[in-house]
Write a structure and sequence with these properties.
7-stranded mixed β-sheet, single chain, globular, alpha/beta, 4-stranded parallel β-sheet, 16 strands
Length: 372
């Protein structure tokens, strides 16, 4: 596989005011994580609106062409082919790592730039590529920070409730390997064979002091939390969710007080940039729910692409060649891409990482427990 964009013939820059199209891939229907998809799309759309309010791309409007991936890699690949045929300058978005991997692989094959907004799976492509860049940190970076938090809180024996998935398997491997050399051990609970009640029994037998939810939400994450919280034998156990399930309002609505004090990863700094403060206020004017870090990821994606398009034009190869020269003030800090050891795509190193939970005294408020 080529690691750099092939030569491409210069594309004529239309002068008729026709839109510059960006393909946006987001999960908007089940089994996709619909709430995450809504937040991601809200950030993308806000940024596009602001780009167009300030002159667009050399006088041409920026247009999102949105396609629902529904957490389905096959559906996402078909959308990539369709969007490529529609002449989009680049692809943006996607929340689910397994879907983003399929998108990145297809985009690389087609020579179509893809800026991944939210997915963290380390291996987005099998071989190095210049066609793909990514904003969130790779899973290994964030989950190692989460493991440091667990160790710092005194947890050495960790149980994992694991659903079948490439993403969850990667998370299991990261935690097992990282904890093993630091005096920790991991006990895996196979959720394809256990119901929530059986999870409680297995936890008691395991001697673990923490249970991490490496499963989808709301099923089976919510029933597992409810069962563990109701079991007096497990009153002292920590429940954690490194993938971020408690970030969204649906979690609080489903679990109430049971959903608090469950640490998870989010990608926000201690303080947003001035742009971030303004964007947060604008996002709050939209949906009734508070914006999550995923909405900021969406906004930052368009901020980067708009800067590249203004500086380098709409030719796909030139866009891909520009990743190394990006220097954009985003909502969460200065965004620049580099080649990171072990990562096959252009990577922002690093997005701020926090371990937070919902405050039991006020479930709508988040407490920062650890930062990396």
């Amino acid at each position: 596989m080529n690691t750099s964009p092939p030569p491409s013939s210069p594309q004529a820059e239309p002068t008729d005011g026709s839109p510059v199209r960006i393909g946006a891939l987001v999960p908007l229907t089940r089994p996709g994580w619909v709430e995450a998809g809504r937040h991601l799309l809200a950030g993308l759309e806000l940024a596009v609106s602001e780009v167009n309010d300030t002159g667009g791309i050399a006088g041409r409007p920026l247009e999102l062409v949105v396609r629902d991936t529904a957490a389905d890699p096959g559906k996402a690949v078909a959308a990539v082919d369709e969007l490529a045929g529609l002449g989009v300058a680049a692809l943006a978005g996607e929340y689910h790592s397994v879907v983003a991997r399929a998108v990145a692989t297809r985009a690389d094959a087609l020579g179509l730039p893809f800026l991944c907004s939210s997915a963290v799976l380390d291996a987005l492509t099998e071989q190095p590529t210049d066609w793909v860049a990514r904003l969130p940190p790779p899973q290994s970076h964030g989950w190692q920070i989460y493991a440091d938090f667990l160790l710092g809180a005194g947890h050495r024996r960790i149980a994992l409730a694991v659903a079948p998935s490439v993403y969850w398997a990667a998370g299991t491997r990261i935690l097992r390997d990282y904890l093993a050399v630091r005096g920790g051990t991991v006990v895996e609970l196979d959720m394809s064979a256990l119901d929530p009640t059986a999870v409680c029994d297995a936890l008691v037998d395991s001697g673990a002091t923490a249970l991490l939810l490496l499963v989808g939400s709301p099923e089976p994450a919510v029933p597992i939390v409810t069962s563990v919280r109701r079991d007096p034998r497990l009153a002292e156990i920590l429940i954690g969710a490194p993938a971020g399930q408690p970030e969204f309002a649906e979690w609080a609505t489903s679990l109430g007080d049971d959903g608090t004090a469950i640490p998870f990863l989010r990608y926000l700094p201690e303080r947003l940039t001035p742009l971030g403060v303004r964007v947060e206020a604008a996002l709050r004017e939209g949906p009734a729910e508070a914006p999550s870090f995923v909405a900021f990821e969406g906004y930052d994606t368009i901020a980067v692409l708009a800067d590249v398009l203004r500086s380098h034009g709409v030719d796909r190869a030139r866009i891909a060649e520009a990743w190394s020269r990006v220097a954009v003030e985003g909502t969460r800090g200065q965004i620049q891409f580099s080649r990171t050891p072990g990562i096959s795509v252009w990577q922002w190193a690093w997005t701020p990482v926090q371990v937070v939970d919902r405050d039991p005294a006020a479930p709508g408020r988040f407490r920062v427990l650890h930062a990396g």
